[in-house]
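Table S7 (text form). Paired inputs.
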Amino acid sequence: MGLNYIWDLLIKAQEAGIGKEQIVFVPAQVYSPYMELSLAELNAKPGEHGIEVEVNPHYRFPDLFDGLLDINLTENEELRRTLTDILLHFLAELDLTQGMNRREFYIRFVLRDMEAGSFGDRVKEGLGLFSREERDLIAEAVLRMYETGEPLHLLRSTVGKVFPRSTIYVNSEERDEMLFYIGQKKNEQRLRKLELLMELFLPVRYRTEVYWEYHVGILDADETMVLDRIAMY
């Protein structure tokens, strides 16, 4: 995973044997509004003044830096650059000492990106249907999906946590198909929650069938073969 946040850069620098005092944060002249750091990997060598890292300080801290780095200001440029470096080091250390480990930071920022619309408007709007705990587990599953490339396993796991009585069957031999049994009555909120999970994790080649209150009948599984409580497949 590439670097995006100042705290992440300090962790990678420490792992590479680079002291944080060798890192010099400087305001980027050209930057993406969706990223905090301009570099993708920490591969530079220290120069005379250390490793200069270009930062978009307006990404997370506009209230602090919009005035300090106003493009209309031309006086005391060196002082303002020094203050920017000091403040960004302080903020990075603050990030790292708020009782969260590295993975929890990644999960927090995946969730924030989803809530900001980076995964599309439907995901952004649909997240409000989930509890805070459910949103956290969805963000963790998205992170794991990018790390492992196993969306089907994560879809089954996440649906199982959001709908505890659910069961998912995968038919990959005859055709790419997934059968969802939710074990609850269908309503608009539950439908939208399931659709959001499918949008995030379901590979496009799979077709789906969803059974809500009644399970599809399965031979030799007596609990699924009760009259008036069988869904037809």
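Next pair, protein 2 of 2.
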Amino acid sequence: MSPLPATIPALVRTRVRAAVRRRPRLTPEEAADRALLLRLCSLLLQYPDRELATARPVLTATVEALPPSPAAEQLTAFTGWLTGQEPDAWERHYVEMFDLRRRSSLYLTYYLHGDTRRRGMALLTLAQCYRAAGWDTDGGELPDHLPVVLEFAALAGPGGGEAPLRRHRRGLELIHRALTDSDSPYRHVLAALLTLLPPATEADRAAVAQLVAEGPPAEEVGLDPYGDGEFAPRDAFVPPSPAPPTRVPPAPTSRTEGPR
């Protein structure tokens, strides 16, 4: 028997690794359950305005009716806390966790690019991804705001719809760690979301540890990180366009030339 070509074992290993990473195809019922989990995470991570506060009984009942799963267990823990919260206390906790702390900000591209021009390009790419899928956001939030990304994932499905979540998994891990360190009940919502994503790799864990130690990339001096303000967060300072250079008149000479 002739020996196998040298390339065959490598090809087999590649296909085995790909098969391990590949998610099994979901049934329509499983896909619907997954979309509902993503949509619930999106709603529970939105700013707790009066409309969301009024919807708490419906959200809690929906979570209680979910099929048993690790994600459902985590969301049940969160809604259990939520039920006993006064709206003002809930709002204060949300602002403290997500608006006043960069380590648990909900803007995903910040963790990957910091406040750099690369972040502006990432925001533009994400907005184009939404438009290409036929989804038009209301424009009230940046395209990388986690509730927006989750809503897109719920609508577009596990493939391309969840690609932004997989791309920013390390940022999600960092948010979860920050919320856990602060003992915030919102850690349960992030934990529920992480159960829906592929398990973290050693490289992921090392990158999260580096983010904790060093923070996101530093701001590039002189560059607008939000693409000329198109994707600037609300109330963010966006430098105005530079004024044209001032033309300095030539200095007068000490000799006056008369007519020739």
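Residues 1-5, 7-21, 220-260 have pLDDT under 50 and may be disordered.
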